[in-house]
Amino acid sequence: MFSSNSDIISHLPSNVLQEILMFLSIQDAVRTSVLSRKWRYIWAELPQLVFDDTFFRESIRTVKNNKLILTIYKVLLLHRGPITKFTLSLPELGSCTDIDQLILFVANNGVQEFSLRVWKPDCYKLPSSLFSCLQLEHLDLRSCMFKPPRVFKGFSRLLSLTLCEVVITDDVFSNLISTCPLLETLWIEMSTSLDYLEIAAPNLTFLYCEGIFRGIDLKTTPYLEEVSIILKEYRKNLVFKEGEPFNLVMLLESIPVIEDLQFDHYYVKCMAASGVPKRLPTTLNFLKVLRLCEICFGALDEVSVVLCLIRSSPNLQEISIQAYPGETAAIDPILDLLEVHYWSDVPLKQLCKVDFGNVSGTRPELGFIKLLLAKSPMLKKLLIELDSEDVAEQNRILRELTRFRRASPRAEIIFENPDEDSDED
């Protein structure tokens, strides 16, 4: 038993104390060294070192910008033991030589999780020492130039990879992915650089792609469960594989166990350009969540893609769609597609939640809502975010919606608009 005035925390095992300190900033962790003799070197054995915005804000009070890198050097020199996680994300990182030295240090200390976010106008070229970190399991890079040496054979233990505004060629990218056989999570955000994405990752389960790329080939991705593709702008000649036009059917056949799928407006447009079947030849039996951004319900091709995906996904549980108020041409063909009696063979038996944003109350939008209400016997919640700020227009939309038949007696319709809290019906 401890006496009433004893320090209970200090009697905890060292590994437990390290776990506690990992919740603190570097500065606060270092300050614990003055608590007692036992605490003196606990911080110096922390396996995780994070130099980020919090570190910068606290340091700038006492240290000038150009001296910040020296503070980081001092921490590393006093550190004992392996460094499994190292994060460097600061507004001012100093010269490229400084960054090179920091990476060399952590590379020699068994780093498994490395994050480098460079906030400089020029892209930082990664040093060769990073490519020797064969024990890496998590890699997160921003504003870097990824140009590995010829002897680089990949990261055989890598589980997750994030590339944001990284300069990398198509060939280097495809080779990198194919030489990370354990990769499970891939996050890509590119405004330029990558043009054609070839992804061969047999263990990949999560993929987020955002950029202005010309094509994407999910070459070997049998276990992909969550996919988000944000194209950012329309590409007229989008391809699926080199030499082959983009094909919606081929894309979805390459992700047979997909559970969560997100496309943006431009990617939907590209899918529509290749022709849209009424239903996919391969049913998406595992798809539970469908998220679509900026869909124009006045465009027949976009509505056709939306309905094709829904028809082909009998086990959908959640649909989230943001509407886009684009120009409306002839709407009669669109309204025909949304007629409930054409959906007699498509009961949405698992659908329980729908989020429909930026709704302006057009006839196709209301027809889509009517269809979902009529075909979803398990629906619990339909959230509709109204776009119009005109009270009379809002009331018109509400009156229309309250007249629609609901297959689910438990279906709750929640309305939201820019000026008021949500209303329930």
Automatic annotation (TrEMBL):
The superkingdom listed in its UniProt entry is Eukaryota
**Which Pfam families does this UniProt record tie to the protein?**
F-box (PF00646), LRR_At5g56370 (PF24758)
Q: Where would I find the F-box domain in this sequence?
A: 6-59
Q: Which InterPro entries match?
A: F-box-like_dom_sf (IPR036047), F-box_AtFBL13-like (IPR053781), F-box_dom (IPR001810), FBD (IPR006566), LRR_dom_sf (IPR032675), LRR_FXL15/At3g58940/PEG3-like (IPR055411)
The record ties this protein, via CDD domains, to: F-box_AtFBL13-like
The name this protein goes by in its record: F-box/FBD/LRR-repeat protein
What lineage is on file? Eukaryota, Viridiplantae, Streptophyta, Embryophyta, Tracheophyta
